[in-house]
Amino acid sequence: MLIDTHVHLFPKFCGMRGGLPTVSLTHGQVQNGNEILQVLPPSYIQTSSTLEVYWRYMQRQKVDKAILMPNIFYGYHNDYYLEAVKKYPRHLKAVALVDVLQGELAVQGLEKLHQEGLFGLKIETGTAFQCEREVDLDDRRIQPVWQYCNDTRQFIFLHLTHKRFLASLGTLCKSYPNIRFVICHLGAEAVLEPEDPETFAMLLEFFQKHENTYAELSAVQYHFRREACPFVRAAFYIEECYRTIGGSRMIWGSDYPGICTMQTYEQTIHQICEHCKIISSDDLDRIMGQNALELFFVI
Fold it and tell me: What is the pTM of this model?
């Protein structure tokens, strides 16, 4: 069982980064204000990530199921995700995206999206709070969203961009025990950039204290992009997490298609299967698919 829990699909870029719009150009490039970013390999001629292309990647690499993951950087593509899960309901599930600072309006939007076929909620703090940079996760405007997600036992997928969010997240884990918090990219910029052992120790302690949290391992290698494949430092941090919490609360994801600027889709699978030597075969099965199957697909 191989399940990719972090896949981005978008027919075009129409999002925000740094308070400025992101617009698709060609050959993997995006216009962000006056800056041009190479966000995908040049072979992505339309700078899009379509369901049709990813479905062929799934077939080629024998990926059984996948979770479609939104981000304001790409834009609001809830409708596109709904089309995808309706086309391949046995293989795909998709996470909802709303502006959490809208409070009760956000709850109404989430409830509608959940009724239509999406689940959970994605928050990338850098883009979700890009127009109000001092906002924290325990902001009073977000409380209705937390309460709704707690009442309905939702998954919250969090991409943390600063270590200050770890403190408020700890409070949320205690206040809303029915929410399952998935920490994307093993803490991402909050923990891995700059590389800070003390902050990583805080993250591991956080996982130990709060059993309603999960370590998601997509694109850990992106934060060590000065290295070459097989990204030894990324493997080191994944193994340290495994030593601390074991394999039952770790899940694999790729961060397709952006990760393909660094390695092939096949290599993202091998990053853990071949280069994290201390993980037992049973736990490897859990991390690469069984945990995700039980969490997201078995009702």
Answer: 0.97
